[in-house]
Amino acid sequence: MASRNQSTVTEFTLSGLSHSLELQVSFFALFLILYLITLAGNLLIMAAVHVEPHLRSPMYFFLSNLSFLDMCYSTVTIPKMLSIVFSENKTITFKQCISQLFFLHFFGGTECFLLTAMAYDRYVAICNPLRYHIIMNHRFCRWLVAASWLAGFIHSFSQAFLTYQMPFCGPNKINHFFCDVHPLSVLACSDTFFIEIFIVANSGMISLTCFVVLLFSYLGIITTVLKIRSAEGRRKAFSTCASHLLVVTFFFGPCIFIYLRPSVNYSADKLVSVLYTVLTPMLNPIIYTLRNQEMKNALKKLTRGRVSPQEIMKGESKV
Of 233, 243, 295, 307, which sits with the fewest C-beta atoms within 10 Å of its C-beta? Predict the structure, then answer.
């Protein structure tokens, strides 16, 4: 494994999304609006879950954590991308670059595990409804969230540590709008084959673990739902999982394309990265609110100022 003291590069230059000034200005306006929508939407979700008594189930506890993760996840990349649009200095120091990579994988990895925990929650709710509140009790839900954060930290630390071992001697221009494993590995000035194998294996292990849990959860859900005799009952059961399944598809699809392969420069990488770093965090609140009447009612109540101080205090005691 290469040693870090072989590196002479102290900073990198981010190429951004485009070299055209007109496109950069358009991207700046677009992504600033999307970022503000992301912050507003996820903050509203968190506030609604916090103060609304009807949203104290494990599902909404997980959703509140997901909203927090989405805000953090988009904040890792979008502000830096916006700052370099009108700046002549489009550089990022080596330490800042590794830090950005670390937090990107920290929040992203945690979200992978949290979405998997949410799939298990839906599995218990549909396949074992009579014991749902016994199994998904407050303590177990908190444990699942804590375990997701811990697993995300271990994943991100390993990714950042392995990338840190790569020697960088020049060139130092990253063909991306943020620091990530693959854009950095192609700049390494020695063979990084074994490091890349470890990186892909790490991502693959996470993907496989989450995929297996997701697969068995939804196989159990589908099997149970198909046994329901009434069409209306099946529709209601599937509707409780539709939002989560849509979010999982939007998040895992692009991530699998990016991370479960060796470092190769694909022209589509930047576009695919926009999907899971910009669009998915913005769409998650929309997906969950449009398909959820309870959440829509809570948001209406919150935005119209109909939440009493007593309900706010009660929110402190929820899951």
Answer: 233
